């Protein structure tokens, strides 16, 4: 029997034990496999060791020397400095540690140390000192490039290196090579054993990149296989083959007050082609705020309704559902279509459970949670779903299918309606492959004509007054103003208070002759609706709001968007907010108030001022914040990869997706004996994430 399993708990590894295992857990290491895939954050180049006599001030140097003296000083209060004098034949240097007095016990006279860090001139003594970043006792190992791993308290560089070495020595042979030979050859990938070995112990730095590539490839490849298999499965289940009466649809389109853009036409024809097909559609429609997704969805809905099916449109909030309802009902007013708004609020009023008399139901996501019966549900449209990951989406889909089959389906059989997901968040490609790899995608990459690009300005405190003057002029010309105050979850109450006070201040001190309204998340649905309607009707000149207006609200007459504390918003969020204005032909303005202090906040403001391109902004945002925060921490919807980094390894991701497609072409269900390991890996690596 082979007891060398990769899932062996780390504490059973030679030289570890339960105590150290606990420490290792803090850096995410629990099994032997975790160690093998533990990625060094950098490599220390020991060929660059500088003789002490030759050291010059620099951001990073690495030196070696004998401990000549150890001196721990407490200066003012709790501040302490540990100084160790290192010597070699060429000279000496003082290595210093701040506030780590406990280290002094480690060093003794004559000990050999390898130390790296920043070299600077000491303000006091005027001599050079080395501010230590990392150190270790030199045991004369002959290492040229030393991996540096993430550390934690109680875990020293040399210890983790030893642990990795043991794991590699004892378990390297146990790592299965998942990849078929052809793929390794075609994409120039190392064998798995070599990759793991070189990741930890490269003979030169040029060896690191190919090692990383192979390991990141594996991560992506297996994941993409999972996504593509799921997509294939959808494509095989029976769905509805709608009959598309193009002439009839054209009649509808031709009487719209505008012509569809090329992009809208293209996306629509992609949707209609899916609807005609006999398998269920699972398609994501991506389009920047204002690109005109609603009319595309409406036409798809109409096509389904003309086939005698019901359609459900779902939005994330009541206000948005209400707004969709108004818009869609308006578009469809000349058609023989019965539209019904169904939200928490309407449910409280009339408790609808039977829907047979309506063709089109518009509501919040609660629409599918509540006990609403559909007679013949054929198409489900889910708006602003970028907040959901693959798993949440799968659940949503499952529910939609359940709902649809309760009555509409052939008795006892699964029944799959077509599903369209819509999002206004421009998702950069690398993320889209990961998040939406199981969907077909259509992008509305063109804005309706006649829009004047929004002018965006950063307004420092000193210029506030003049910007209020500017707003006044806009109001005098009949325009309206949004003022958004941020809401940060931890202190919701305080933030709310701030927003309320701001509304009062604006009303009383700045705009006493105009009407200021306040909209926030704590208001009841009806109350929100009332305020929105007043604003829409022009009864309010200024609407102060917490971020509830973040998505979707359509007030074409609003020409100014003020964002208070703009530095507190993410870039994509700012872009979404800005998208609330600029919907007419007139010039619109976005003012970013606040005081960006960090470099990152400054970059966000700069990107907003310089660009109105949603994709560009999303790319910058993703780069600044990383994928987790970009998508919102709560449900980032992203798997955690062992080695791969969605942003940095975008190129590898593309190749892995390509390779996964090729493999599935040859073996569509991974039936072949030699692909069983891959199949199992999908489950063991991402099963939870994919909902297997
Ligand atoms: P999205 O949902 O993508 O943010 P909407 O569907 O709300 O955008 O469209 C924004 C506005 O543009 C709406 O008032 C809509 O009626 C209008 N619109 C949509 N398509 C066009 C078009 N092709 N030409 C002119 N206006 C359009
Ligand atoms: Mg919309």
TrEMBL record:
Residues 463-628 form the Helicase C-terminal domain. It is an enzyme of class 5 (isomerase). Residues 274-444 form the Helicase ATP-binding domain. Keywords: ATP-binding, DNA damage, DNA recombination, DNA repair, DNA-binding, Helicase, Hydrolase, Isomerase, Nucleotide-binding. Its EC number is 5.6.2.4. It catalyses: ATP + H2O = ADP + phosphate + H(+); Couples ATP hydrolysis with the unwinding of duplex DNA by translocating in the 3'-5' direction. One of its GO terms (biological process) is DNA repair. InterPro entries: ATP-dep_DNA_helicase_RecG, DEAD/DEAH_box_helicase_dom, Helicase_ATP-bd, Helicase_C-like, NA-bd_OB-fold, P-loop_NTPase, RecG/Mfd, RecG_dom3_C. CDD domains: DEXHc_RecG (cd17992), RecG_wedge_OBF (cd04488), SF2_C_RecG (cd18811). The keyword DNA damage applies. Plays a critical role in recombination and DNA repair. Helps process Holliday junction intermediates to mature products by catalyzing branch migration. Has replication fork regression activity, unwinds stalled or blocked replication forks to make a HJ that can be resolved. Has a DNA unwinding activity characteristic of a DNA helicase with 3'-5' polarity. This is ATP-dependent DNA helicase RecG.
């Amino acid at each position: 029997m082979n007891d060398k399993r990769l899932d062996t708990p780390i504490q059973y590894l030679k030289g570890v034990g339960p105590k150290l295992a606990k420490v290792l857990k803090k850096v995410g290491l629990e099994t032997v496999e975790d160690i093998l895939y533990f990625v060094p954050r950098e490599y220390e180049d020991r060929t660059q060791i500088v003789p002490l006599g030759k050291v010059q001030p620099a951001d990073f140097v690495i030196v070696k020397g004998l401990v000549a003296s150890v001196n721990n000083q407490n200066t003012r209060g709790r501040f302490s400095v540990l100084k160790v004098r290192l010597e070699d034949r060429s000279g000496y240097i003082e290595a210093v540690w701040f506030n780590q007095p406990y280290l002094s016990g480690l060093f003794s006279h004559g000990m050999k140390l390898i130390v790296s860090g920043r070299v600077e001139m000491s303000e006091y003594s005027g001599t050079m000192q080395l501010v230590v970043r990392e150190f270790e006792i030199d045991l004369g190992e002959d290492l040229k490039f030393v991996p540096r791993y993430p550390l934690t308290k109680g875990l020293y560089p040399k210890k983790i290196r030893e642990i990795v070495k043991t794991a590699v020595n004892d378990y390297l042979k146990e790592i299965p090579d998942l990849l078929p030979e052809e793929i390794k050859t075609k994409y120039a990938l190392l064998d798995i054993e070599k990759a793991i070995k070189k990741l930890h112990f490269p003979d030169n730095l040029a060896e690191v990149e190919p090692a990383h590539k192979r390991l990141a490839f594996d991560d992506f490849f297996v994941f993409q296989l999972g996504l593509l298999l799921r997509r294939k499965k959808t494509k095989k289940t029976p769905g509805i083959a709608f009959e598309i009466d193009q002439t009839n649809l054209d009649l509808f389109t031709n009487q719209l007050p505008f012509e569809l853009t090329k992009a809208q036409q293209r996306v629509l024809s992609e949707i209609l082609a899916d609807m005609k097909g006999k398998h269920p559609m699972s398609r994501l429609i991506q389009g920047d705020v204002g690109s005109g997704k609603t009319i595309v969805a409406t036409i798809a809905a109409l096509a389904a309704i003309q086939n005698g099916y019901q359609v459900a449109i779902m939005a994330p909030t009541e206000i948005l559902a209400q707004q969709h309802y108004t818009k869609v009902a308006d578009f469809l007013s000349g058609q023989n279509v019965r539209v019904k708004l169904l939200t928490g609020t309407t449910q409280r009023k009339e408790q609808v459970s039977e829907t047979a008399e309506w063709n089109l139901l518009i509501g919040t996501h609660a629409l599918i949670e509540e006990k609403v019966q559909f007679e013949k549900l054929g198409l489900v449209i889910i708006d602003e779903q970028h907040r959901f990951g693959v798993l949440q989406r799968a659940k949503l889909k499952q529910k939609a299918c359940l709902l649809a089959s309760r009555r509409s389906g052939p008795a006892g059989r699964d029944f799959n309606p077509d599903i369209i997901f819509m999002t206004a968040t421009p998702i950069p490609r690398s993320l889209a492959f990961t998040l939406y790899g199981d969907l077909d995608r259509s992008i509305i990459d063109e804005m309706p004509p006649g829009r004047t690009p929004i002018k965006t300005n950063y307004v420092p405190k000193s210029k506030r007054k003049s910007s209020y003057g500017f707003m006044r002029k806009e109001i005098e010309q009949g325009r309206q103003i949004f003022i958004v105050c941020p809401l940060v979850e931890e202190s919701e109450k305080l933030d709310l208070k701030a927003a309320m006070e701001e509304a009062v201040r604006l009303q009383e001190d700045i705009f006493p002759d105009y009407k200021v309204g306040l909209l926030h998340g704590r208001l009841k649905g009806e109350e929100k609706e009332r305020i929105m309607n007043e604003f829409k009707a022009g009864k309010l000149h200024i609407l102060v709001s917490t971020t509830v207006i973040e998505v979707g609200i359509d007030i074409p007459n609003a020409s100014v968007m003020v964002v208070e504390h703009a530095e507190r918003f993410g870039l994509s969020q700012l872009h979404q907010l800005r998208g609330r204005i600029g919907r007419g032909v007139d010039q619109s303005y976005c003012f970013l108030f606040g005081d960006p202090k960090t470099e990152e906040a400054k970059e966000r403001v700069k990107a907003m001022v310089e660009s109105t391109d949603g994709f560009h902004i999303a790319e910058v945002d993703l780069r600044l914040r990383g994928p987790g925060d970009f998508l919102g921490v709560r449900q980032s919807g992203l798997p955690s990869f062992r080695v791969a980094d969605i942003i940095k390894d975008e190129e590898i991701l593309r190749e892995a997706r390509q390779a996964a497609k090729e493999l599935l072409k040859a073996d569509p269900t991974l039936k072949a004996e030699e692909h069983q390991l891959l199949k199992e890996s999908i489950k063991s690596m991402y099963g939870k994430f994919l909902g297997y």
